[in-house]
Structures are given as structure tokens and as C-alpha cells.
Design goal:
Elements lengths: L4 E10 L2 E10 L8 E9 L2 H8 L15 E9 L9 E5 L14 E4 L4 E3 L6 H23 L8 E5 L4 H12 L3 E6 L5 H7 L3 E4 L1 H4 L10 E6 L3 H7 L3 E9 L13 H5 L3 E4 L7 H14 L2 H6 L1 E5 L3 H9 L6 E5 L3
Parallel strand pairs: 8-9, 8-11, 9-10, 11-12, 12-13, 14-15
Antiparallel strand pairs: 1-2, 3-4, 3-6, 3-15, 4-5, 5-7
Helix pairs in contact: 1-10, 2-3, 2-8
């Protein structure tokens, strides 16, 4: 690599063959945008794993640089909102899908896609949170917006050992809720209790056959799994309970009785994190910086170099990753 070039991870399909590898490119090769950012860290999310392995139709451009988020330092800016030296975060907006992604040492993007790094967060810890943690905070905010407040009842998080689930467990526990972590990997029980879970149950609790209505247990739920797991949650929701759904690793369809909705007033709230307006993003990131101690963030984080992304993409799509994977694009 020469002094005026930088490394990117490129996924390309040509002649029916698919390749994933590191390439050297120049700043002139970047897409147009108002702000040029020197990327410090990205993350490996489940969606990134699907994009890199080809197990999901994530990439909309060929060839493509994946990576749906990044954190770094502004180098050049045509926007008054940012100046050289500013530290920034980007999640969503189709970056890493339709637009040049975070698995790159440099990127050029629209100013409105960026969020200033909140006080109290480092660039590495911001990406330890990343899209997954940002989504988890949006779920917590959705639960509170739809009625979740102080309660003696339990709040359950499914897929709790994954990226979104880990941060959701930590955020809810720090907010004072009695959090139950549901996971398909019972060996992660100690890890989840370390994040603040008061109890750990197997995900099969929700997929085993049961009545349309079971005893009232959950005041609220964050479901990162979807499929039969989501359908099973409703059976034990308490009166006027609320479920925030944000994932589909367990399937895109679910079956549920109408009884929880018409007899207990249960609410299902969908949470998406790609097109959230900038003002709402800043509020969510400020609360993350306030509510998650750095030591807790580090506890759920593993850092890997850029060239390890292909191997780890296989691991994350096979549900074998715990917590958050930070990608040091300069390592």
C-alpha cells in the first residue's frame, strides 16, 4: 500500500463467482459526499456476516465494500456541521448495503448521516456499541414510550448473548428492570449475569408448545430473534405488556393467538435503526454514553483486524459470536 492509498474489504461477484478480499484504493475512488472521514473502527453485525458470506441478499451494489457502521475522525468537510478533527459515528442509511461501507480505512458520506461522538465515549467503545447497541437503545426507548415504567415484573430479552441482546440486557438492567436473558446458548449464562441479567432461560421456553395464554410473567420484551420465538413470547405477556421486535435471525414469520392482544392489551412495536432521523439518533447516543459504563462495554467486546472479517462472518452467521465484534480497520 502506497502513502496515498488505503485498504478496503471488497465483495465482488463476477461470472457467477464470488470473491472477498482486501484491496488498495485511493481517495479519488470514494463516492461523492460532503464529509471525508478517516475510519478508526467498524463492527461486525449479523447483517455484515450475511453480506460477506453471501448467505443473505444484503448487498445492492457490485462490487461493494460492506460494513454498516463506522467511527472515525473528519479529514475534510464541505458541511458547516463538521470540521476537520471532529470525531463522528455513522450507523444505517444503507451504508455497507447500497453505499460504500465501514470496512474501509477512509469513507466519504453525507453530513446528515453522521452523529458527533458523544462526550464520554471513545471511538472504539462507540463501535463496541455500534448498530447493534444503537438498536438496543431504540428498543428500550420504544418500551418506555409505550408504557414500560417501574415494575416488579420481569423484562425478557431474547437472543441475549448476541450483539443487540447483550446491550439490551445491560441497558435494561442499568435502568433498574428485572431482566431475564433468553438464549439458545446456556453456556453463556455467567456472561449474561455479568451484564446484569437476574436469570437466564433457554430460548426453547418460547418455542415449546403451549396454550394460547399462559400465566402473566413479562412486563415487556426485547425480541432480537423473530420467528417462533417472537410468537411464543406473547403467551406469557402481562396485562398491557409491550414487545419491541427488531430481529429475524430465527425466521421472518411467526404465528400467535389474538388472545394476548384482545384480552390483555399486549402491544407489538417494530423497531428499525436504518432511517432514524438525526435528532433522534443524537438523543439515543447521548443516553447510551450516559447509561453504559466503559468497563461494561469492554466486557462484551472483542476486537479483530480487518483481514479477520471473512472468517468471523462465518462465525456470526452460525450464531457462535458472543457480544460485540469491533473491527480495527487499521490493524
Amino acid at each position: 500500500m502506497s502513502d496515498d492509498s488505503f485498504r478496503v474489504l471488497v465483495v465482488e461477484e463476477r461470472g457467477g463467482k464470488r470473491s472477498v478480499g482486501l484491496h488498495d484504493v485511493r481517495v479519488a475512488d470514494l463516492p461523492p459526499g460532503e464529509v471525508l472521514v478517516r475510519v478508526a473502527y467498524s463492527t461486525l453485525n449479523y447483517k455484515d456476516g450475511l453480506a460477506v458470506t453471501g448467505k443473505g441478499k444484503i448487498l445492492r451494489t457490485n462490487p461493494m465494500v460492506p460494513g454498516i457502521d463506522f467511527a472515525g475522525t473528519v479529514v475534510e468537510s464541505a458541511s458547516p456541521a463538521y470540521q476537520p478533527g471532529d470525531e463522528v459515528i455513522l450507523t444505517g442509511w444503507g451504508v455497507g448495503e447500497r453505499h460504500w461501507g465501514g470496512f474501509s480505512q477512509m469513507n466519504r458520506v453525507k453530513a446528515d448521516w453522521l452523529v458527533p461522538l458523544p462526550a464520554g465515549l471513545s471511538l472504539r467503545r462507540a463501535m463496541a456499541i455500534g448498530t447493534a447497541g444503537f438498536t438496543a437503545m431504540l428498543c428500550v426507548q420504544a418500551l418506555e414510550r409505550h408504557g414500560l415504567g417501574p415494575t416488579e415484573r420481569e423484562v425478557v430479552v431474547t437472543g441475549a448473548a448476541g450483539g443487540v441482546g447483550s446491550v439490551a440486557v445491560a441497558l435494561l438492567a442499568r435502568a433498574g428492570y428485572n431482566v431475564v436473558a433468553a438464549t439458545g446458548r446456556p453456556a453463556e449464562a455467567d456472561y449474561l449475569r455479568g451484564l446484569g441479567a437476574s436469570a437466564v432461560i433457554e430460548r426453547a421456553f418460547f418455542t415449546n408448545a403451549g396454550r394460547a395464554l399462559e400465566g402473566e410473567r413479562w412486563a415487556a420484551a426485547v425480541d432480537t430473534v423473530g420467528g417462533p420465538t417472537l410468537g411464543g413470547i406473547f403467551r406469557s405477556m402481562a396485562y398491557q405488556g409491550v414487545v419491541a421486535a427488531c430481529g429475524n435471525a430465527g425466521g421472518v414469520e411467526f404465528t400467535a393467538s389474538v388472545f394476548p392482544f384482545i384480552l390483555r392489551g399486549v402491544r407489538l412495536v417494530g423497531v428499525e435503526s436504518v432511517l432514524v432521523p438525526p435528532a433522534e439518533r443524537r438523543v439515543a447516543w447521548a443516553r447510551i454514553a450516559r447509561d453504559l459504563p466503559g468497563a461494561l462495554i469492554d466486557q462484551m467486546t472483542e476486537v479483530i483486524p480487518l483481514d479477520a472479517v471473512p472468517a468471523y462472518s462465518e462465525t456470526i452467521t452460525n450464531a457462535q459470536v458472543r457480544g460485540r465484534i469491533v473491527v480495527d480497520v487499521n490493524a
